[in-house]
Amino acid sequence: MDMHTVVVGTSGTTAEDVIAVARKDARVELSEAAVEALSAARRIVDALAAKPEPVYGVSTGFGALAGRHISPDLRAQLQRNIVRSHAAGMGPHIEREVVRALMFLRLKTLASGHTGVRPEVAQTIADVLNAGITPVVHEYGSLGCSGDLAPLSHCALTLMGEGEAEGPDGTVRPAGELLAAHGITPVELREKEGLALLNGTDGMLGMLVMALADLKDLYTAADVTAALSLEALLGTDRVLAPELHAIRPHPGQGVSAANMLRVLAGSGLTGHHQDAAPRVQDAYSVRCAPQVNGAGRDTLAHGRLVADRELASAVDNPVVLPGEGRVESNGNFHGAPVAYVLDFLAIAAADLGSITERRTDRLLDKNRSHGLPPFLAEDAGVDSGLMIAQYTQAALVSELKRLAVPASVDSIPSSGMQEDHVSMGWSAARKLRTAVAGLARIVAVELYAATRAVELRAAEGLIPGPAAQAVIGALRAAGVQGPGPDRFLAPDLAAADAFVREGKLVDAVETVTGPLD
């Protein structure tokens, strides 16, 4: 377990902290300021709970049942009941890293001092994270409004010692047993605490933060594979000149063009577009790669802006306003800001996949590949080469296009029409995770095809650039084979996918180019 410690304070957190806790098992500690803020907010809740006037979430029912005033002797039961009844998810278990991210982000909001829970409730979340206990959370149950209710409820159920959770060894057991095994006392919820544990955008935000990190790496990888395809197709790198991109100053476009130009430095393959079969311009999928990759990069920048704002937020309803000494209802739990950007990123991912597949198809088509053998096969007709690798890539692209259909334009009213417009942000996040995984595979297929094509050119005496040579050497060292007769292709493609996802492609290039953007 990573011994790095993330300290949770009162002013939000960073994307890097979320990833450290979710993916690297970093330890979590509450700052003294957070404990003080929690205590101060709790005093306000206790004072309001002692008054006869009803306060939503403190002394009333919830949602469409908010009109009922709850007597003091039933309020602990009220808080337990909301957790039990809302833990109504169905379907497959979601990934451990997603559960850890949403728990950490809920802890972040609790520590802000705007929710009114006692410090010991927040500390229990930290203890569960540090013990490596992961509540069982299901795929379906969140509408992305009033927070990710069902997912967060399953987490809160674990804090109460109920339901099921996964231990550090990956075995699912009763949550009470796991807490006892790690010396953690289950919480006994008091006024507002059950509600405060459920009411946030934490699941969709956690998935956004991780998708942004993954897509940042994939966009750099896609700049590299686009450059390798340009090289293999004997294209011109003149379209990457900085002065051309300066006159259309979208930041991402300039970054992608600069990355591609550095990958192509010293290549003996570029600039042959006026040779035996002269062409004035390369095809769009080659020539416009910086424009498409760059637009995606700018979409990521917008996504990071939204994520950073949400990471600095305290999302709950009602919220405690310590300076005012009061508790107020609000609509900050609505997931629209996060849902929109999750959908936007899925659109960008689909289009990057689409242009990537078009370059692969061009590499395999003898009528458009400028002298490469059909399907990059050794003995076309006897060998099929990479024909079906492109089928697989096309299937993935088609899937990404379906996943690009926005979830956030849908809304199904719930809670007796009290919650009559919802964001579907959880659904947007779930499909984006699927799209990111598919995009990595699509980029991997282009890498596989482009490196084989570059090697075939080298066999004809056209020497690739140092960056391409570094990629080919690292890829072959990773067990991905080069040109030759047909063989069982799936293992090679899986290894290429891992090579991309684990950052080895960019690492190999950067041994020559230095850090890419």
TrEMBL record:
PTM summary: Contains an active site 4-methylidene-imidazol-5-one (MIO), which is formed autocatalytically by cyclization and dehydration of residues Cys-Ser-Gly.
GO molecular function: histidine ammonia-lyase activity
InterPro entries linked to this entry: Aromatic_Lyase, Fumarase/histidase_N, HutH, L-Aspartase-like, Phe/His_NH3-lyase_AS
HAMAP family documented for this protein: His_ammonia_lyase
Cross-referenced PANTHER family: HISTIDINE AMMONIA-LYASE
Family listed: Belongs to the PAL/histidase family.
Protein name as annotated: Histidine ammonia-lyase
Organism the protein comes from: Streptomyces mutomycini
UniProt gene name: hutH
